[in-house]
Amino acid sequence: MSTATVRVWWVRLSQVDDALDAATARLLVGAERARAAAYLRSDDRLRFQIGVAVTRSVLATDLDCRPDEIQLDRTCPECGRPHGKVRVAGPRPGRQVSVSHSGDLIGVAVGTVAPLGLDVEQIRAVEAAVAPLVLTPSEERQVRSAADFIRYWTRKEAVVKATEDGLRQPLNLITVTAPTEPPRVLAWTGRDQLTATIQLHDLATRTDHLASLAVLSRDELTITEHDARSLLLT
Predict the structure, then answer these.
(1) Model-level pTM?
(2) Are 27 and 53 in contact (CB under 8 A)?
(3) Cα separation of 180 and 161, whole Å?
C-alpha cells in the first residue's frame, strides 16, 4: 500500500492586514476578480479571495509554475454555474483540492492521491430544528455539547465534499462514529458500497473551530497542517 500526502493550509481572518489583503488580491485572475468585487461584506470577499490565493500559491509551488498559470475550474456538475468544488484544470492537473471557511478560519487542503473534502466549522449553538437534518437518531443521543454537534457536522460535510454530492445528499443518511471515538463512516443509506473507501480524519483541535478531512482512498495518508500567511507574502 502506497503513502499519499495531504497538506492543509490555514489563514485566520482576524490576522489579515492590508499587506496580506493586497498580496492575495493580486493572485486572482479573470472572473475571480469580478466575483470578489461582487461581495457586499468585506469578510466574505476576503474568505473567497484568500481561498483562491492559497490554492494558487500551493499549486504553483508544487507544479513549478507561476500562480497565474494554474487553471481552476469551479463548474457545478448540476447547473453548470461556477460555484462547484474547485478542480485543477488545463495542462497541469494532478492535484486534488478542497476549500472551506467558517467564522475566522479559511482552509485549503491539497492532496496527491484521490478526491478529498475539507470542512471547518465555527463552534456555535445551532437551532434545535437543524439537528435532525444532520444527525441520525442514535447520533442525536450522543450529543452533549455544541462541540459534539459540530464534530458530527464537520465529519459528514467533509464526506459529501469529497464525493462532490455537497448538500444535495442529506447528511442524516450518513452515520459516523461518536465525537469521542476515532473518526470513521459506519454507514451511508443507499451508498454503503462507498464506506469502505472513505478515510476520515479530525484535524488539529482549536478552541473556536473544528475541522475534518475525508479522502476517498485506502492508501496510507500523511496529513500535515500549515500557516499559509508566510506563503502568501513571499
Answers:
(1) 0.94
(2) yes
(3) 23
Q: How many CA atoms lie within 13 A of 43 on its CB side?
A: 10
CA dihedral 110, 113, 115, 121 (to 10 degrees): -40
As a whole number of angstroms, the distance between CA 86 and CA 91 comes to: 16
- Return per-residue pLDDT of the chain as tens, 234 residues: 456 899 999 999 999 999 999 999 999 998 899 999 999 999 999 999 999 999 999 999 988 889 988 888 887 767 767 667 788 876 555 789 999 999 999 999 999 878 999 999 999 999 989 999 999 999 999 999 999 999 999 999 999 999 998 878 899 999 999 999 999 999 999 998 899 999 999 999 888 999 999 999 988 899 999 999 988 987
210: cell is 473544528
210 beta partners: 121
Compute, in degrees rounded to 10, the torsion defined by CA atoms 207, 130, 49, 159: 80
Pairing of strands 3-12, 105-111: antiparallel
Asked if 86 and 72 touch (Cβ cutoff 8 Å), the reply is yes
Answer whether 213's CB lies under 8 Å from 116's CB: yes
H/E run at residue 100: strand 96-102
Cα–Cα distance, 195 to 186 (Å, whole number): 7
Cell of 88: 485543477
Coil vs helix vs strand at 122: strand
Round to whole Å and give the CA distance between 197 and 188: 12
